[in-house]
Amino acid sequence: MKVLVSPYIGFCYGVKKAIDTLLSSFCPGKTATFGPLIHNPQVVSKLEKMGIRVVNSLSELKEGDTLVIPAQGPKSWVLEEALKKGIQVMDLTCPELKKTREMISRSILEGYQVLFLGDRGHSEVESLLSYFPSVRLVSPGETPRVPPGARVALFSQSTQDQFVLEKLADFLKSSGVSELQVFNTICRATRERQAALREILSQVEGLVVVGGKNSANTRRLASISQKLGKKTWQVEVKEELKREDFEGLSAIGVVSGASTPSETVEEVVRFLRSL
Predict the structure, then answer these.
(1) Which CATH architecture has domain 2-9+189-273?
(2) Which of 124, 205, 239, 263 is catalytic?
(3) How far is CA 123 from each of CA 3, 20, 93, 219, rounded to the nearest angstrom?
(4) Nearest Cα residue to 236 out of 204, 208, 216
(5) Is the pTM of this model over 0.70?
(6) Residues sharing a CB contact under 8 Å with residue 121, sequence separation 6 or more, in sequence order
(7) Is 124 a catalytic site residue?
(8) Element (H, E) at 253
(9) Topology (CATH level 3) of domain 13-94
(10) What is the pLDDT of residues 134-152, one digit of tens each?
(11) H or E segment at 190?
(12) Contact criterion met (CB below 8 Å) for 1 and 275
């Protein structure tokens, strides 16, 4: 069986930078991440074994502890409250997300109605909305109503589908707005992985997507593959794959989410090539 592997596997820039920074300066037992550092249970489990625990409330920390802000960013109140309690803060928010916040702030000051394409409840989305209560969240597939003549600025969650953003932009252009600014804030890693995915799908009968079940960008890759009619497996580790699932297939593709360690992907590839 032929196995085609995406050229974009392993951690993206933001995830790698967050992990490297944390591992270079943490204090075991006194360092905690506010929610999981990244959306990969295996990585989070390794960090916990090293003494970096996960907390969901500042009440779980005491003065002198270090609170690590995950790559998806904090709620607006977290940094200030932590400092008030004497808790040190290590802010590992992805630089791309900080840039998006700055751009949205500028659009609001310039009088635009800001729409944000994103998944309700996702940590990146909830962080951003906490900073900008006036921003209107648009779920994928939704066709929002906007007042005729409105000046609209459209942004996106970093892990959205490029095609969904383009479709929403086309809808808004035909909806009677007087001005539309579209800011493609889907991160480069997401765009690269989605483009590679579509290229691979044209050459295979099925696709294995490697990454956390709680990872939005990983789930998006699996969803795109399914919508295009391919047999799709989303797994976190190779042990979830069964030999019999691939009987009769002559070509299979492998892609990964941006928070998946490259060694995990390589284990899956070795398993598939052994069939």
Answers:
(1) 3-Layer(aba) Sandwich (3.40)
(2) 124
(3) 34, 21, 11, 15
(4) 208
(5) yes
(6) none
(7) yes
(8) strand 251-256
(9) Rossmann fold (3.40.50)
(10) 999 999 999 999 988 999 9
(11) helix 188-201
(12) yes
